[in-house]
Structures are given as structure tokens and as C-alpha cells.
Amino acid sequence: MIENPAIRRDRLSSFFAAFDVAAEQAMPEAANLLLLGQAGELRSLVFLPHAPAAANPGEEVLAAVSIDFGGPANPLIAALPDRVELAFEAAPAMRAVADLLATEASARRCGRQIALDNLCRLLLLLLLRHMIDEGSARPGLLAGLSHPQLFPALVAMQEAPAHGWSVDELAAIAGMSRTRFMALFPRVLGTTPMAHLAHWRMVLARRELERGSRVKLVARRIGYSSAAAFSRAYQRTFGEPPILMRQEHAVPGRAALTSR
């Protein structure tokens, strides 16, 4: 994903490409996605991005799922509020997916885990799309992805992190002057364009290292001219050198490759 220079202006694809979504059925108190209803009929969902449900939601729980969003580094999940509630009456497509999810969660059929993972992924995609369409009142990534002028610049950085982006280039993509862009971006996202780009690069780098990629290769993929410069930036961000993450996820018997 991070090698692809194409800029597709798709606000969610880069996040789903970078982070794996896995799901498993759970007890309601240990779940972060609850499908609620009455008399067996789905009515709403409760989504808790940052912690499992701790209290009785007050309705019948038709399905309770624990979703792993690819770790706490996922910046889109981190940007969401602590609790999201949605009535299916206003989202028929989401309800259809939730119905299938509830059925799979309660059954023990072949391919169940694949179905759960993919249905949760689709439901999460639809929910995030709905939230982007609704907009966000607080500064952050969700607000930026909801902004009609800023989101193309955000997606450009997300889709081509290795590109040597400049403020002028990003402002042109957003269709505004440099001055206007530099004033608006931090007001909507709570950070500067270059700080956002640097953080996104580090997030991608960490995911690539977790997946077993070599330090030099990761550095090149996210736009660093040398592994040393990348290692310094990585350590400033995460407080440890990238080689440690690489070693933790190295294939057994191939430790000699971890520093390459």
C-alpha cells in the first residue's frame, strides 16, 4: 500500500489497507460493538472504539463482538469519540450488514471467522462513512476527513506518504492559498500538515515493521533517504529504535536479517 504513488482521493481505503480488522464473538461486557434490539429485531448499535462496554446498554443485546482495529496506533480509530450510537432506522444498508453479522455471531458454521472479520470490516466502513458524512464538531482526523476542501490534501498524504510533499502543493490540492490552508488545517485537525504527515509515516512504518519488513525497506517506502534518519525519527516518536519492533516480529531463524 505505501509504495503506491497513485492519489485516489478515497478517504478510507488507506486506513483499511494499513490496518487489519479482526473480530470475535464476546460477552457484552467485554465487547466494543453491540447490536441491540427488541423481540429479536435489530434496532441500533453501540460502538466503543477505545474500551469494552462496561454497563448494561438497557436493550436486548442480539450480538456482541470484540473488534481489533489493528492496534492502538490506528489514527482513525483514535480520532473517534468514546461512544458512538446509531439507530438503524436511518441506515438501512448498515442494518442489513448487522443482520448478517448477528446471524454469523450466533451460529457455528464453516467459514464463520472469515465471515465475522469481513462483516465487521464492512460494518465499520459503513459506520465511518456515515460519521464522515455527518461531520465532527471537535478538531481531529475525523473532522479533517469530513472537510470538503481539506480531505483531498489529507488523502494525498495518506496515499503517497513517500512523496516529498510541500505546503504549497498540499494547499493547491485543497484549492486554497497557502495562507488560508495553513490557518485552516490546524484549526480543523489540531495539528500542522507536516506534523500530520510525519505521524502518518511513523504509523505506517510501525505497521510494516510489525509485519516483518526490514528497516531499510520501510525507511525507503515512507520517504526517508537513509535508515539512520528514519531510525532517529522513529525513536523520537515511539521512544525506541525500529530494530526492536523488527526483532520482535522477525521470522525465527532469520535474526541476522533484522538489521538490514
Automatic annotation (TrEMBL):
Short name of any one Pfam family annotated for the protein: HTH_18
What protein is this chain from?
Answer: AraC family transcriptional regulator
Alphabetical list of PANTHER family matching this protein: ARAC FAMILY TRANSCRIPTIONAL REGULATOR, HTH-TYPE TRANSCRIPTIONAL ACTIVATOR RHAS-RELATED
Annotated organism of origin: Bosea eneae
Please state every residue range assigned to the domain named HTH araC/xylS-type. 151-248
* Keyword Transcription regulation carried by entry: yes
Which keywords label this protein? DNA-binding, Transcription, Transcription regulation
